Amino acid sequence: MLHLADYTNISHFSIYDDVKSIEKRALVRLSGLLQATKTGHLILGVPNSLVRGVFDAMDEPGISLPSAIDGGTLRAAVVVMTPEELQQVGGPDAITERGKQYAYHLGSLVEQPAKGWPGISVCWHLKINSPELGKLRRSYGLPTKLEGDSDFSIVVACRKVGVLSTKAVSKVTQQSSTVFPDWAS
After folding, report:
1. pTM, two decimal places
2. Domain for residue 109, yes or no?
3. What's the number of domains the chain is made of?
4. Among the listed residues 131, 126, 122, the one whose alpha carbon sits nearest the alpha carbon of residue 160
């Protein structure tokens, strides 16, 4: 008599193949240009279309592109150094690597409460893996990660405070139901 336990579970092979496929996609090497901004950040520029594509595919109510928050145009980037860190190392002119390409790999999309961003409650970040950027930070005497052990990431969407809250007064209750406009008769 044969027992089912004697047979290899075929679903394990399917799961293994799926995991290998995910690993391959995660290891696609991308690169961006290291730049200093007028706001005092050191960033790695990434294609705006990357942010726009992820944003367009998201199914979250009340989200906005990061550019819609500050009124500026979309500038997709990975923050490499904050303004405080950049000043600590001697300012933008001290960064001799500006204008060079740095590699990164895309990670998972995560939702996090917004920190230090007035009027914003939640942000979605596309995590970035870049040993090269960590090494660059260490070469200037900074920790591998940003303040608070934050991973490198690209902000792809935000939700403003109060966007999903209900209002106390409804437009329907404000209108008089006994008076109809001329065109309604």
Report:
1. 0.72
2. yes
3. 1
4. 122
